[in-house]
Amino acid sequence: MVSFNKLVMFILFYGFMLPTLVVGKPQVPCYFIFGDSLVDNGNNNHLVTFAKAKYLPHGIDFSSGPTGRFCNGRTFADFMAEYLGFTNHIPAFAFSNGSDILLGLNYASAAAGIRRETGHHLGDRITFDQQLQNHELTVATIIDVLGGYDLASTYLQKCYYHIGFGSNDYLNNYFLTSVYETSSMFTVDEFAKDLIHRYKTQILKLYNYGARKVALHGLGPIGCTPYEMSRHYSNGSCVDYINTAVQLFNHHLKLLVDEFNNNKSLQNAKFIYLNIYDMSIEAIRNPSAFGKRFRVVNSACCGMGLNNGAITCLPFEIPCRDRNKYFFWDAYHTTEAANKIASSRTYLALNESDVYPIDIYHLVQL
Ligand SMILES: *[C@@H]1O[C@H](CO)[C@@H](O)[C@H](O)[C@H]1NC(C)=O
Ligand SMILES: *[C@@H]1O[C@H](CO)[C@@H](O)[C@H](O)[C@H]1NC(C)=O
Ligand SMILES: *[C@@H]1O[C@H](CO)[C@@H](O)[C@H](O)[C@H]1NC(C)=O
Ligand SMILES: *[C@@H]1O[C@H](CO)[C@@H](O)[C@H](O)[C@H]1NC(C)=O
Question: May I ask which residue range the UniProt record assigns to the signal sequence (predicted)?
């Protein structure tokens, strides 16, 4: 006869084991995230800045409500953690208590850029250089925990690294001519090259901290954000000169991927480029594609003024109801529905132009 206690034990055991059996081991031991508000998951919550999102309606569709994510639900990085087989989303560096660092950390900070001054008018932010310093601390801890440099280095080489910067260098620097001088110092092409030059040095630093499987998130069509459409009174069409500038950056970023992959002294590393731009344009130009997913592509779900993009999503503002039908969540950021498409198409490419030269699924198998 099975006692009641044994039955309870069985159910607890089985209930506990089930997710492990279904999900299996993550495809990589750890996942580290560097970036801006597209993937920030709370690192700005305690900073003195206007770039914060720990209030409703941000997180309205997220399991734990507002967390600091600039989205109604999950970000690109959240979906990727799920596809990679992690049980939990990768925690924010700011809230890490040390027990979780071996699975990876999210260092991303809203308003951050490649250039140090980018986003300063909004307040504090953790720039890419500072995010790299934070990672250096993590690496030192991992060396301690694993008991030596070689063990840590072997471990860190198996991890997957996401890097996504540049949006703020355009939005909150080059094209914000009332505050920043870069547009009078550089032509758009010079600016793209300057950014890539700085980016290269920063990414090589991450290589020196052990990164070997690295995805570089290309820029989306910033000229199509409700913010830029509203600022340019474009009547719901994308702002071409901004998109042209962003595409120049992407062009040079893709060349950087080739340069890294062809560099003999980086032979055991692989870099990939995620072509967010083309898949976003495809969704915006042809909203009825993607299983007729998007109905509204030129207005934010949460925000006010022209295209709902003049004033971004304010605390306790009532957002649109059919959030799965909107491409843009607020003046700058995409909805969970759009993030799901971009993350799934870069994890497993749907179209060969989605990623370069390989997708994330194949990168992490290397
Ligand atoms: C650390 O945080 C995790 C969740 O991220 C939690 O489960 C764990 O109990 C925490 N540990 C300590 C010692 O606070
Ligand atoms: C703005 O766009 C709408 C619909 O796309 C169109 O009906 C209207 O004529 C346009 N207005 C101007 C000033 O171009
Ligand atoms: C190749 O990588 C090394 C770092 O190991 C770097 O110093 C060098 O600048 C790179 N060369 C090119 C052509 O990118
Ligand atoms: C793949 O992407 C390219 C560039 O965005 C586009 O021209 C082409 O139609 C796409 N093909 C498919 C099958 O979606």
Answer: 1-24
Number of compact structural domains in the chain: 1
| Nearest atom, ligand 3, residue 263 CA | 1
Taking each helix axis from N to C end, the angle separating 188-208 and 240-262, rounded to the nearest 10 degrees, works out to: 40
The active-site residue, picked from 37, 96, 167, 280, is 37
* C-alpha dist (Å) from residue 21 to 12, 79, 102, 359: 14, 20, 21, 26
**32-53 pLDDT tens trace:** 999 999 999 999 999 999 999 9
> What's the CA gap between 157 and 155, in Å, rounded?
5
- The pLDDT value recorded for residue 104 is 97
CATH number of the domain at 178, please: 3.40.50.1110
- The boundaries of the domain holding residue 71 are 4-363
User: Atom 11 of ligand 3 has which residue's CA nearest to it?
Assistant: 263
Nearest ligand to the CA atom of 234: 2
Query: What's the pTM value of the predicted model, to 2 decimals?
Result: 0.91
Nearest ligand (C-alpha, residue 89): 1
Q: Ligand 4 centroid to 196 CA: how many Å? A: 26
Q: Where are the beta strands (DSSP E) in the chain?
A: 31-35, 160-164, 213-217, 270-274, 296-300, 303-304, 311-312, 326-328, 355-356
Atom of ligand 1 nearest to the CA of 88: 5
The pLDDT tens digits for 326-352 are 999 999 999 999 999 999 999 999 899
C-alpha of residue 292 to centroid of ligand 4, in Å: 17
- State whether the beta carbon of 235 lies less than 6 angstroms from ligand 2: yes
| Rounded Cα gap, residues 203 and 270, in angstroms | 12
Q: Rounding to the nearest 10 degrees, give the CA dihedral for residues 252, 43, 62, 280.
A: -10
